[in-house]
Amino acid sequence: MDATAYLARIGAAADDPLAALMARHLETVPFENLSVHQRDRVPLEDPALVEKIVDRRRGGFCYELNGAFAWLLGALGWDVRCCSARVATDDGLSFPGDHMALVVGGSTLVDVGFGRFAVGPLDLDSRDEQPDRAGVFTVRDAPDGELDIVWHGGTQYRLDPRARSLADFVPMAWWHRTSPTSPFTHALLASRLTPTARVTLSGDLFIETPDDGERTEKKLSVDEQLATYRDVFGIVLDAVPPALCPPD
């Protein structure tokens, strides 16, 4: 595995600050679940994750994106650990390991695998409001030493800051790839940041959410979807794969 090739993939330099590395990753490597619907079982192991993102020029979901980025940061000399998080839903908090995030340097939250979220690092030691390109974030203390990551007043997820291995996330990654109740098995999704907006292809709907404007939506034909995957997300497909678990 080659850190130089990874840096070239995201258009960054080895001596870039953490915020720049994070932003470049978010702008070049899409959050996407196509592997789920292509039945492409990518092992949660450093070589497989880096190969998918760098050599195959694909994206992934949280375990893949943050797992690969953790490898890159470690290769560049950063102190980084993988951490478990429970996502906030209408019914409360999800299962432990439902999401994987990174803690760098002991107290800095970095997350390139949560879709629409903070663009820059967040200070886990601060309880003040932290302005970010995506909005205002706050860290709040939660029971048992965990931390709630709050965006515009709403909890996004509860972070357990203890170090985990990639292997710890294998069961939940398998569940997300296979379960009819997983949000990732119902429809195809690709999303990435641009310098001025977030662009998303959800099923056949192309969505653009500017930083300072109104969200727009456009329904795409199959040919337009394939062109959008290629031109917007860098994903070349022969055909749009069917949903693994089509909704009723």
From TrEMBL:
Source superkingdom: Bacteria
Residue ranges that the Swiss-Prot or TrEMBL entry lists as coiled coil: none
InterPro entries per record: Arylamine_N-AcTrfase, Papain-like_cys_pep_sf
SUPFAM superfamilies xrefs: Cysteine proteinases
A Pfam family per the record: Acetyltransf_2
Family: Belongs to the arylamine N-acetyltransferase family.
The protein, known as: Arylamine N-acetyltransferase
Species of the source: Actinomycetospora rhizophila
